Amino acid sequence: MAPKKNHKERDTLLVEEALAGSQKAYADLMSLYWEQVERFLSLKLSGREDVEDLAIATFSKAFDKLASYNTSFAFSTWLLTIASNTLIDFFRKKEQKTLSIDRDRSDDERPVLNIADAGLDPEGNLIRKQKNKEISRMVHRLKPHYRELIILRYLDELSYAEIAGKLNMPIGSVKAKLFRARDLLMDILKSNENDY
After folding, report:
1. Which domain holds residue 85?
2. Which of 17, 141, 157, 186 is the most buried (most CB within 10 A)?
3. What's the rounded Cα separation, in Å, for the pair 56 and 63?
4. pLDDT at position 194, please?
5. Residue 161 contacts by C-beta under 8 Å, 6 or more apart in sequence?
6. 112 within some domain
7. Do 77 and 134 share a domain, yes or no?
8. Could you give the 3-state DSSP secondary structure of residue 6?
9. What angle do CA 112, 114, 115 make, to 5 degrees?
């Protein structure tokens, strides 16, 4: 019986295999650390969907920068640093100054608010429709099983659990395949970015 590898050796080997193009290695890394990343994010976030979306974003960023991973450090430490930075970015985007228009005031005390219509003008609507049509065309360039996942998650807005039930697939597989589908779609979008 061969001796068991420690976590650091196992992770280093998986990173090397992933960098060599092994999709299984990516899925294995995700499977090994998904719960740890979710637990970390759950300490700061109350929404389940936000936790799942930020976990996916964390792995996406980590896998994009996998070549920069220094194997002298634990993979989990590196990954949780990325999760922490992803969380900080999330909170920065959420910070907005707001003014309540529902406060109890007399009519004389109510501020006059000039609230701009954020809707698009007819030209903007046409441009948005054309872009949506182009994005839809790009989604249809994905292999059918990836296309189905993107449509279920982002157009039908199903949760990971709902997708897993609908496709009769383990939730971990749904997350790993959806991660890969998003990467492939981003590659297609990047190759067409000059069109925008």
Report:
1. 7-94
2. 17
3. 10
4. 54
5. 171
6. no
7. no
8. coil
9. 130
Q: How many CA atoms lie within 13 A of 64 on its CB side?
A: 13
Q: Alpha carbon of 61 to those of 42, 101, 161, 172: distances in Å?
A: 19, 39, 23, 18
- Round to whole Å and give the CA distance between 183 and 14: 19
User: Which H helix or E strand runs over 186?
Assistant: helix 171-191
- Specify whether 27 is located in the same domain as 73: yes
Q: Find all residues with CB under 8 Å of 139, minimum gap 6, and list them.
A: 147, 150, 151, 185
Write out the two tokens for 8.
């650091």
Which residues in the chain show pLDDT less than 70?
A: 1-5, 95-121, 124-126, 128-129, 131-135, 192-196
Is-contact 164 157, C-beta < 8 A? no
The answer to whether the beta carbons of residues 13 and 5 sit under 8 Å apart is yes
Domain count, the chain: 2
Looking at the domain assignment, is residue 103 inside a domain?
no
pLDDT for 84 equals: 92
Residue with tokens 């429709």: 129
| pLDDT at residue 13, rounded to an integer | 92
CB 184 within 8 A of CB 146: yes
Largest Cα–Cα distance in the chain? Answer: 84
Query: Which amino acid appears at position 72 of this protein?
Result: S
Tell whether 118 is covered by a domain. Answer: no
Q: Which two tokens stand for residue 164?
A: 């897993």
Contact (Cβ atoms closer than 8 angstroms) between residue 172 and residue 26? no
Residue 151 lies in a domain: yes
